[in-house]
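Why this split exists: single-chain examples teach little about how molecules sit against one another. For that reason, every record in the complexes split bundles all components of an assembly together and asks for one structure covering all of them. Below is a record exactly as it appears in the raw files.
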Amino acid sequence: MNPLTDRPSPALLPMGFVDLLPGEAEAEAAGIAGVMEIFARHGYERVRPPLLEYESSLLSGAGEALAEQSFRLLDPASHRMMALRPDMTTQIARMASVRLSDQPRPLRLSYSGDCVQVGTAGRETDRQVPQVGLELIGPDLPAADAEVVAVGAEALDFLGIDGISFDLSIPALVWALLEEVPAAQRVPLVNALDRRDAAAVAQHAGAQAGLFLALIQAAGKADSALEKLEQLDLPEALAGHVQRLRASIEAIGKRVPGLKLTVDPADFRGWRYHTGICMTVFSTRSREELGRGGRYLAGNEPACGLTLRPQALLRVARLPVPRPRCLVPETLPQASREALHEAGYATVSALAAPESPGGESLSEATRALARKLRCSHVWQNGKVQVL
Amino acid sequence: MNPLTDRPSPALLPMGFVDLLPGEAEAEAAGIAGVMEIFARHGYERVRPPLLEYESSLLSGAGEALAEQSFRLLDPASHRMMALRPDMTTQIARMASVRLSDQPRPLRLSYSGDCVQVGTAGRETDRQVPQVGLELIGPDLPAADAEVVAVGAEALDFLGIDGISFDLSIPALVWALLEEVPAAQRVPLVNALDRRDAAAVAQHAGAQAGLFLALIQAAGKADSALEKLEQLDLPEALAGHVQRLRASIEAIGKRVPGLKLTVDPADFRGWRYHTGICMTVFSTRSREELGRGGRYLAGNEPACGLTLRPQALLRVARLPVPRPRCLVPETLPQASREALHEAGYATVSALAAPESPGGESLSEATRALARKLRCSHVWQNGKVQVL
């Protein structure tokens, strides 16, 4: 897409906000509905938190990590600051720990909605970000991690997206190791890690250089990555992360045999609220992330979630087949319209129709009108005729 | 609903913003999906404008009427003010006249999304307002008005909402008559009209008092209201409004025989951008407005639209039947899960299941777990068992 030519007036909409046209909007809605249907089949129940909340609530606790991505606005009713949500996971966590605290665990929740992010200065990114996701709140078990991955993979499969892989990481492990590095070296080390620049990592990681380089080199298929990680001399408090990673990978393998799993142990991106295993979803059809998720604390409770990005799914999913359009006279009775709807047609009324010739054949004027209104069929003399 | 007791912490969310819980959120989503399905059957195609736009674009032209209901925020990327949309009709009009200007007319568009309104100080109203609507852009015809009413009525019927009536009005006529009144009297007259306070109307309307009182008194069933309106001595420029009202009412009667139609000629509320016939939708099941719409200008083009309010529909619609939940062992193969989904069950994995007794009967532990997770069925020994 060329942003200079595809948008007639670049000044019309703020950077990162777009109009979805017919076709695009339908595909997005169908994709979200499909994902939510799969979530529902596995017992996930829909909730809908509001678009904005008080800053003090939305951006506290785990939400602190979101502060710099949030637009704020003043509530004239309370004279308090509100923030547009940049992410929904923290809202679901709040609902789970307050409104739904008396519901039995495991609590399975799903959601879909728009988030708004400030974006990065100078970078053209989406700022209105639809999300569709699920959260499994309660059990801190490998089987719970596996369920989140399995249901996410099934949703992508349902949309006709193939070549799926889940890339696993443990950002909490990386952040813990970064604590061991002298404070002055952390920012350059984080940047070096982000680029997977081995030389710069070695330069800034000091005594931990061997460990950080080993994390980078361990990246790859899940089995081989696990083997490499298990040979590392990690501090005892962190070795548990690797043990859990193996248990979760084994649980995923049992639940979704054949799913492609990779591990990128040097990955530490994303929201800072994750406490354990994290996952990023890719398809071989695209370089773009299709979603991400992982383990975090919902209040004081263990939770694992996955958020898919409908805008990314849209670019690789099988598109819904538009229903055929049938031109009908404005005077067609409702019962006949309903019969056409039952048969799968959209009825398009000719509000100011040309006179029907009355015969079996379609007049040129009718054909022209049908073509203009993108109708493939015309209702005439009590039946559907192909244009 | 008692706002003091129904919300555990009133300070948690800003006034007018709510969490929808499981059940509520599902009902809202199902209602929106149902309405959009009916719109699609009649050839309306979905578009999705962004949640926010530059103030200069969103609140110009017809959008000026929305300015006082809009939250504004600064775009750090462009240093320009943006506004959260309080309404979607003006966005659809913008899309029709810019991005979709080369599409043939009539252009039929549908949309659903959240709007955010500043609200009225001291009044507890929803401020996050979901909307679902349709716009018919191009023909300025009674048949077009009738199509919008017919498709809206069908959508409500599809949701199981009965006792529907459409209350028609012509705010543009009232505003034009208000221009005839001395400026100093207009505000008290508008307030008097809003209360349908005949004495106060007579006091402030001066020479126009007879006309304004006649408008109030004409309210009622469409046929009798039309007769009364046609006897009024309206300025010639305004008499056309009444002629068009009759033509539209006749077209609606042909398209939806039996639909209850009323006329309230003194009604002038709502957005100020309407130029012709307006409609407010009610059901005998509720005093609340279910939606409203009318005729306006999309850029320079005649257009007629209707916006339904999912939150109001939700309170009167037939609720979707939740799918039965079946407790399954975590190890259940995917093929068995899919068979249960096909049969209409949601599968709920017992992540840390009690040992199965192996026999035909359900153990007490299994029963207790199923009950806890609100499952009506349990998968055991290769089949579904009722709890």
